Amino acid sequence: MATRKKTTKKVAKKAGSSKVGTSSAASKKKARKRTTGPKMENSKANLRTIALNSIQDVAGSVYKTGSTGGLPQLSMPQRNLANVTYDKKTGYFEMKGNLKTRTLDVNSVKTFAQTLRLMALAKDMVSAADFATKREAYYVSKNWGDAKFNEQRESDTVLDDIEGMFSVHDVTRETLRFVPEEHGGSVVGALTVIDRDPETHEPIRSDCAAMGSGAYTVPSSVDHLGFETTAEYVLAIETGGMFQRLNHHRYWRTTNCILVEMGGVPTRATRRFVRRLSEDLKLPVYAFVDCDPYGICNIYRTLKVGSGSAAHVNRKFCVPNATFMGVTPDDIEEYGLQDATHPLQAVDVKRAKDALKNDPFFQAHPRWKAAIKKMLKMGVRAEQQAFAKWGLNFVIDEYLPRKMRETKKFLP
After folding, report:
1. Whole-prediction pTM value?
2. What domains are there in the chain, each with its CATH number?
């Protein structure tokens, strides 16, 4: 490896290059087609049955205890980082098993009633194959009298508690027919997504390499989808601007990959989508994220191992096979980006120090601890767009090709 000074000079010399979309070795190999079919309807019917039985069991227990003069209880996992463990072999945050119990008394009667009303709403939607957004669920409660929610964060919390109760049966919010307001990530590249018409059940094929200047949008539920691809890997990108640049110059074509825009912390649907690409199609996943505490400790960590608040469903909504391509603190030095950085703010420093002290993922990986400590020592952060210092397409012509030649060096 060249010295830092010589490397920076070399980068500056190449910055004038105008050739876009340098082909990788992967694009020169004979493409191997990978496929996975959509889930059958009987699988979806089985999930509906499990969801309905789960609701009935909890409601039946509450009724039985109450009708005999007892105080009904609801037990659910504690959803925080202190209640998770991380093992490299497992690959994601798991619950320790600590529970919180909600007993029906004068202090909890409102939350108890809200929980049962949301469960009843879920039962109706699962039975009718209907759905509600989380925002709609909040407004439905306005007809519940004293049990109505005052703010959506209250209904969101109760909904997460319900999901936690049923997670032992692999029942998720999506199974209960609650969907988020936000759309999933954008996808382009060597991938065909196979969906089904909700009325005729006929297959609908979306070629992610034929979207023009647009992109395929990940739906709120993705487990029923089928895939076909000849891609060699998935590149998950933090920012919309970088995604658009790579798509505009057809980086996915010259390097035979699939580009996924995360748009900050990726939604559950986006994480599940990428997880399926990784596991069902046996594709490596590389994350291209800003070099800052939020990008590393929130965006990438959530993609890779999940979060403490959602540890009860992390086994489905994370991508354990993902690795961190960049941007790294070493990249700031290697590519001479020192004058294209921004000082770490107090909130950045706190987030990084909290990760070192309390996050089981970073504690389990010495290389990550070293990288975060180096970022704190440097006192700066760098965005993906910082490479524009050397030219708008430097990231395509130089940075990505060089990084992709050394995938084994990526941070875990």
Report:
1. 0.87
2. 4-30+183-409 (3.40.1360.10), 41-179 (1.10.10.10)
